[in-house]
Amino acid sequence: MSLNSLDETLAGELDNLQAAGRAKKPERIITGYIPPKGGCGPRYLLQGQNSEFLRLNSNSYLSLSNHPALIEAADEASRKFGVGPGAVRFIDGTFIPHTGLEERIARFTGKPAAKIFNSAYTANCGLALAIGTGTTRWIGDQLNHNSIIRAMRIAGVPSANKAIYKHNDMDDLQRCLDQVGDGIERVVVIFDGIFSMRGDFAPIDRIKEISEKYSPRFKDGVITIVDDSHGIGAYGTTGRGTSEFCGAAPDIIVGTFGKAFGVNGGFVAASKTLIEMVRQKADTYIYTNPLSVADCAAAAKAIDICDGLAGSALLKGLQERTAQFRAGLARLGLESIPGPHPIVPLLVRDTAATHTLVDKLYANGVLVVGLTFPVVPQGEETIRFQINAAHTESDIDSVLDLLSK
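and the corresponding structure tokens:
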């Protein structure tokens, strides 16, 4: 049967997205990578463009994606085991690099056990499927990532068993806990560690304190979960993430290898019993092939680097460049959201001005992300800058110079 009728309907829906300002632009295609040289950080080549581009829209906070040790580890694992597992984990698709990475990330996060997924997105979905019940109440931050919101829908959480507290508002979190009705045996408080559009962080110490106060009311207690995808590796004194920065660890940590660690994949870290339940019940783990051994070997090597002197140096450099950029914005009188994280938002507060500034930066070889209405509310239009460890002092100065003009 022809797709003509369906295509016609879908074309109308696409037109509506375009008219509402919600359609995504065509994807730029990276055709080349130019290593750091001459006091400048790495540059990228784009299809159809003759100039080189500085990326300030990358999640690779420690700039490990092109690290020779990671490439060597991935190559060695692929040559030993092949490029694909040939099966899901339960059907002899588990290789020693898979279990090795799980043990390594568990140690790094300070949890007894961990289970790896193809992404943090699928990790959130799998976790919700594993621990959700008809008597579980889910309470989340207003600005939680789409993967958390989608995880609750996939797990079939009814609206009656969900509540949202105002962003980082601990009084409102307590209100949500006060309103939990009879018959609820388990409460889950779930939140981002670093909020990806703003660069601010969840006060995990306060969330833990409040949750523990309410925990005795429920048979299974109040469980705290952080998705620290933007924090792990890039935040805290030793890169342990938002938990380390706040001095308090939640019960469960969800994270990614796809940002600071520079590879692919996600994970859940928690107690051994909970991780075994994830293994038994998480559809996004059970019914799909796992990460390649190359990804696992590279991710494990990235954690090793982060855990040593080289990682400390990278983290220190990242913090210095972030501080330099934030201080430069302040000198220029430009508005941002304060904090030490390398996500640095520039609040433009006007859609047309945001588009204009993003285009001017692009014309001058700088890649950034503009967030405008209706993605964000009117008056909160933002440009998100993301500092990476490979950015140099000269790189940051050049971007600040462009902004000053």
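(Above: one complete record from the training split.) Residues 309-331 form the longest helix (23 residues).
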